[in-house]
């Protein structure tokens, strides 16, 4: 009898738990790591890609669009970037919903949607999928890196239950416990965006399942302000990620030369 409580999303167990939501959160804990750090002058997001291979067509990532393969990091609006961990198809559905919500807000109020407002809208949708019968929860968590003129740079996290919270630095996906403990030790209140980039890369190098960091396994994005004090979202292309890794001494060539010299 105890096992039947997970047959529907809307049935509480005697302990007051919704098992399908817990299962969704467990699925996210096995997904590729997504890490975000908030700094005084920007937000940094990095994500571990799971879909890799020599036969994968990366031409669009190298030449077109705003950079990135679009597997883990997405541009939701000119002032909001999202990193996703979990089921990619669910993530695509939520990303499209968020983009439409952002454009509706821009059309109605002639201003970019506040970051928390966008997180709330997605969480309202996700909460509905935990309440109505015949639906399963979205198996995806999101990190929102955004900017608005009132509260400036912000970093939010939302999970399948519809909960969301603001963070200075956080991690979702595989090895999130290790990454969070590293961030607790090294995060500083007045960190600059350059220092945040270095912190994110170092943390990813220690927590990713792969032994080497490279553009084929990593997506990277920053949100800063341009000269006109407008939010400037940058999703790095593979070649730019490799340059960034070399700059911080985490690229492949360093390891290759060490191996050959040994």
From TrEMBL:
Give the GO terms filed under biological process for this record: ubiquitin-dependent protein catabolic process
Output the CDD domains linked to this UniProt entry.
Answer: proteasome_alpha_type_4
Pfam families in alphabetical order? Proteasome (PF00227), Proteasome_A_N (PF10584)
Compartmental location = Cytoplasm; Nucleus
Which terms are listed as keywords in the entry?
Cytoplasm, Nucleus, Proteasome
Q: Where is the Proteasome alpha-type subunits domain?
A: 5-27
Q: Which GO terms describe its cellular component?
A: cytoplasm; nucleus; proteasome core complex, alpha-subunit complex
The record's family statement is:
Belongs to the peptidase T1A family.
What does the subunit section of this Swiss-Prot or TrEMBL entry state? The 26S proteasome consists of a 20S proteasome core and two 19S regulatory subunits.
**Function of the molecule:** The proteasome is a multicatalytic proteinase complex which is characterized by its ability to cleave peptides with Arg, Phe, Tyr, Leu, and Glu adjacent to the leaving group at neutral or slightly basic pH. The proteasome has an ATP-dependent proteolytic activity.
* This protein's name: Proteasome subunit alpha type
């Amino acid at each position: 009898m105890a096992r039947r409580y997970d047959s529907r999303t809307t049935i509480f167990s005697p302990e007051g738990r919704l098992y399908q939501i817990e299962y969704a959160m467990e699925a996210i804990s096995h997904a590729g790591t997504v890490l975000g750090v908030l700094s005084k002058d920007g937000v940094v997001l990095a994500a571990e890609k799971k879909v890799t291979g020599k036969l994968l067509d990366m031409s669009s990532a190298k030449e077109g669009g705003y950079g990135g393969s679009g597997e883990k990091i997405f541009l939701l609006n000119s002032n909001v970037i999202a990193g996703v961990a979990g089921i990619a198809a669910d993530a695509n559905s939520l990303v499209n919903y968020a983009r439409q919500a952002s454009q509706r807000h821009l059309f109605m109020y002639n201003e970019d949607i506040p970051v928390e407002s966008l997180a709330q809208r997605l969480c309202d949708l996700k909460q509905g999928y935990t309440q109505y019968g015949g639906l399963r929860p979205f198996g995806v968590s999101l990190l929102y890196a955004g900017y608005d003129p009132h509260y400036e740079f912000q970093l939010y996290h939302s999970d399948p239950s519809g909960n969301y919270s603001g963070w200075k630095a956080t991690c979702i996906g595989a090895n999130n416990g290790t990454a969070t403990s590293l961030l607790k030790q090294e995060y500083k209140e007045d960190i600059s965006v350059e220092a945040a980039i270095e912190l994110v890369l170092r943390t990813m190098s220690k927590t990713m399942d792969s032994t080497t960091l490279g553009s084929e396994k990593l997506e990277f994005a920053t949100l800063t302000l341009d000269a006109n004090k407008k939010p400037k979202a940058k999703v790095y292309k593979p070649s730019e990620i490799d340059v960034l890794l070399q700059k911080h001494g985490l690229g492949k060539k360093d390891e290759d030369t060490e191996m050959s010299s040994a």
